[in-house]
Each structure stands twice: as C-alpha cells, then as structure tokens.
Amino acid sequence: MNVLLDHLAEFREGFIGTVLLTLASGLLAMVLGVIIAGFRVSPVPPLRFFGTAWVTLFRNTPLTLLFLVAWFVVPVIFMPGLSPWAKALMALGFYTSAFVCEAVRSGISTVPLGQAEAARSIGMTFFQTLRLIILPQATRTVLPPLSSIFIALTKNSAIAGAFSVTELFGVQKLLSDQGFAIAWIFLWVALGYLVITFTISGLFRLLERRMGVAR
Amino acid sequence: MTDVSVTKDAIPAADELVVLNQVNKHFGALHVLQDIDLTISRGEVVVVIGPSGSGKSTLCRTINRLETVDTGAITIDGKPLPQEGKELARLRADVGMVFQSFNLFAHKTVLENVMLGQIKVRKADKTAAEAKARTLLDRVGVGTQADKYPAQLSGGQQQRVAIARALAMDPKIMLFDEPTSALDPEMINEVLEVMQQLARDGMTMIVVTHEMGFARSAANRVVFMADGRIVEEATPDQFFSNPRSDRAKDFLSKILHH
C-alpha cells in the first residue's frame, strides 16, 4: 500500500507518460489508418498496392520487433538523433495504423454501394465521395472495433517501458528493482491501465450512442 | 396525342446530346449490351422498356459511366466519356441520375442532400444553394420536409427529393433508372407527375421504366430492348398500337392484358 503513497510522483509520471504516448500514437494511427484505408479502396492501382503492402507489413510484424527496428535500424538509415519517445510513437503508431485501416475498410464496405454511386453521379470526385459521404456513414460501424484497437494500443504502449520511455509499466521495473513488494506494484500499475482503458471504452460507448445513422 | 408527338418529334437531328455508337458490354460470359446504337437529341424524352435482364438498366448506367463499356463509343454533347477522374466527375455533374433505390445520403437532411452537390461540386455559395434547394424541393412538392432525414420520408417523397438533388446540378440530361420500381403503387403517381412536368419543361430524359402509361403520355420515342439488343424504336403510338417485332408483340401481350 505504502509503495503507492511513497512513490506517487513516479506513478503519476508513469501514468501521464502512458496517457500521452497512447494519445499521440492513437492520433497518428487514426490519421494514417484512415488515409491508408482510402488508398486501399481507391481506383488507382499503385495506391491500392501501397495500402496493402503497408497493412501486410505492420500487421504481421511483432510489435517488439518494430520497436527494435525503430531503435536500431531507423536511426542508422533514415533519421539519426530521434528521441526514444518519438521512436516509440512511430513504432506504436505505424503498428496500430494497420489495424485501424482494416477496421475503417470494413466500415466502408458496410455503406451501401448506392451511396457512392449517387455521390459520383452528382459529380463528386473519389476523395470527396469518401470524405463527405462514405466515411461519415462508416464511422458508426467502425467505433466498436476502434475501441478495442485503442485499448490494445494502451496495453501495447507498455513495451515502450522496456525501451526506457517513461510510462506506467516502466514504473514497475523501477520500483521492483528497488526491492518493493512486487504484488502491490503490479496492482497499482494494473489499476492505472484500467483507468485508461475504461475511459476509452466509456468514451466510445458515448460516441456510438451519438452517431446513429437512420436508414 | 398524335399531334403532340409529331411536333415534339420535329427536333433538328443535328442537335445530338447523347450518342451511343456500337456499344458492347459483357458481365463475364453474359453479353449484356450488343452493338447498341442510340442517339438522343436535346429536349427529347426517350423511354426504354423491355423484360428484366434485357440490359436496359445497364444501358442507362453506361451513359454516365457508372458502368464501363468494353467496346464502342459514347459521347455527351459532342465530348466522348473520359476515363475515371476529375474530367469524368465534371461531366457527371451535367448528367442527372435517379436510381431505383433513391440513394439519398442517409446522414444528411433532405435540404443538405440537395445543397451538397451545388456547394462541393459547383462551388456555389451557401445562401444561393439553400435558396435553390428550397425552390426545387417546393417544385417537387416536398418543401415542408426539408429538415427531415431521408429515412423519415416515404419512398415517393424520397424519390422526389432525389429528382430535386439531380436537378440542383442544372443537368443537360436526366437519366432515370427504374425510378418507380421500388415504390408502393399509391406513390408511383406522385413521382411520375414530377417527371411529366420535367418532360413538359423540355428536359432531355432517358427513362428506364415499366410504367407503360408514362411511356405513352410523356415519351417522344420508345426504345424496346431484349437480350442486350435494341429490338425496336418507335413513337409510343406506333409501338403500343402496332409493334413491328414479334418480341415486342409478345412482351406487350403479357403486360397489357390486365
């Protein structure tokens, strides 16, 4: 019990670290995922190919391996001097974007084809059709899987702790190395994650209720 | 009636708005459009009829390239249909389309449905778009429903909104792909009346339909299709009273007897 009160500062810092990392990489994954989903349904073959390649690569690579690549390969080849936080953001964001893309794509396919045909027949371009007609109607279907994806992202962000990014799970290692009782530490860390994941699922349930499209 | 169609038929042949030249299309092994030649003049109302599976809906959809063709050429107002892209989008804005299943944007109100194309495609400003949308909605008789969502309207009302949405783009031609086939019988007339009015106002129209009454009263020309071919083209009077082909005689004997 005392381990929490005595190290409130560390726990707080770890908690905020996890929240920030989840928020930032969630945002990145969301933006990338929607763009890549657009690529995957586009009429332009090279874009479709790029989208498929992206999803295949990031969905099928273990996240830890992506972290290793971000830590040891990316700085050498592309961007030297990237901070650990930015590297974790990239690994988590890219990995999650593949899952977001597939969720969005499944949502797109639930919108009746006639909606896109009507949009195209009044002269909208492909991207206008996607942005103004298809995606808004796909959102409602995409919310439940997205909620799961972001909860998974929250927990996946724990891997960043092993790569010396300050976040909740890293606090556990810090304190257990100092010899505190491990069970209590785990309990508080787990509760910290629970607060975040419950917030996410609550938020999404609220969104779902607001976004019904009547047919 | 006869007099009217004679005067309406006297449209200069030079003013060709839509020309299909030797158009062929396959769906897999099925040859849905076979050597289709069809010319529609400005101001003309052409009704396409025929048994289901005869390719009439496909024909209608090739004209704004919702379906691509395998061989042959389609020109609209002298311009051949371009490949998918900005230019095709611009051309589609000039070709109004009304679908069997209405296809109103489900997440937009009736008013927004009619404004959207004007604002996003024609780049009209919002006030002008709204004024025009309201005028059109009044014209098709659903002005009071402007702030509702499509799902709250009856089928007939939805289809009239769909017509207003297409008209908002100031199209050169209107395509109707079985506009009344998904409607309850009592709602068919309210849609047909709007279409009759459009025809009287001089809109160029291609109408795929099973409504023989509409074909008789509003068409300048009836095109009869069967098995992917245009079997017969005639004025409504000629076609309904004295069809030339056996296929058309057979078709009419089946539908006109009750």
UniProtKB/TrEMBL annotation, chain A:
Q: Which PANTHER family match?
A: AMINO-ACID ABC TRANSPORTER PERMEASE PROTEIN YHDX-RELATED (PTHR30614:SF37), MEMBRANE COMPONENT OF AMINO ACID ABC TRANSPORTER (PTHR30614)
Question: Which GO BP annotation is one of this protein's?
Answer: amino acid transport
Question: Which family does the similarity line name?
Answer: Belongs to the binding-protein-dependent transport system permease family. HisMQ subfamily.
Q: Which residues form the ABC transmembrane type-1 domain?
A: 15-204
Q: Mind telling me which residue stretches traverse the membrane in this protein?
A: 15-42, 63-82, 181-207
| Species assigned in the record | Streptomyces sp. NBC_00119
Q: How does it sit in the membrane?
A: Multi-pass membrane protein
Q: PROSITE patterns this protein is in?
A: ABC_TM1
Tell me which GO cellular component terms the UniProt record holds: ATP-binding cassette (ABC) transporter complex
Keywords from UniProt, A to Z, are:
Amino-acid transport, Cell membrane, Membrane, Transmembrane, Transmembrane helix, Transport
Any idea what this protein is called?
Answer: Amino acid ABC transporter permease
Location comes to: Cell membrane
Against NCBIfam families, the record matches this protein to: HEQRo_perm_3TM (TIGR01726)
UniProt entry tagged with the keyword Iron: no
Pfam annotation, one family: BPD_transp_1
Coiled-coil regions in this chain? none
Kindly list the GO molecular function terms attached to this UniProt entry.
Answer: transmembrane transporter activity
The source's domain of life comes to Bacteria
From TrEMBL, chain B:
Could you name the domain of life of the organism this protein comes from?
A: Bacteria
Q: Where in the cell is it found?
A: Cell membrane
Q: Which GO terms describe its molecular function?
A: ATP binding; ATP hydrolysis activity; ATPase-coupled polar amino acid-transporter activity
PROSITE patterns given in the database record: ABC_TRANSPORTER_1 (PS00211), ABC_TRANSPORTER_2 (PS50893)
Q: Which residues form the ABC transporter domain?
A: 18-252
CDD domains to which the protein is assigned, alphabetical: ABC_HisP_GlnQ (cd03262)
Q: What Enzyme Commission number(s) does the record list for this chain?
A: 7.4.2.1
Q: Name one GO cellular component term.
A: plasma membrane
**Known catalytic reactions:** a polar amino acid(out) + ATP + H2O = a polar amino acid(in) + ADP + phosphate + H(+)
Coiled coil residues, start to end: none
> Which UniProt keywords are present, listed alphabetically?
Amino-acid transport, ATP-binding, Cell membrane, Membrane, Nucleotide-binding, Transport
Task: Tell me which Gene3D superfamilies the record gives.
Answer: P-loop containing nucleotide triphosphate hydrolases
SUPFAM superfamilies in alphabetical order: P-loop containing nucleoside triphosphate hydrolases
Membrane topology term reads:
Peripheral membrane protein
Q: Which InterPro entries match?
A: AAA+_ATPase, ABC_ATPase_HisP-typ, ABC_transporter-like_ATP-bd, ABC_transporter-like_CS, MetN_ABC_transporter-like, P-loop_NTPase
* Entry's family note: Belongs to the ABC transporter superfamily.
Q: Report the protein name in the record.
A: ABC-type polar-amino-acid transporter
What taxonomic classification does the UniProt entry list for its organism?
Bacteria, Bacillati, Actinomycetota, Actinomycetes, Kitasatosporales
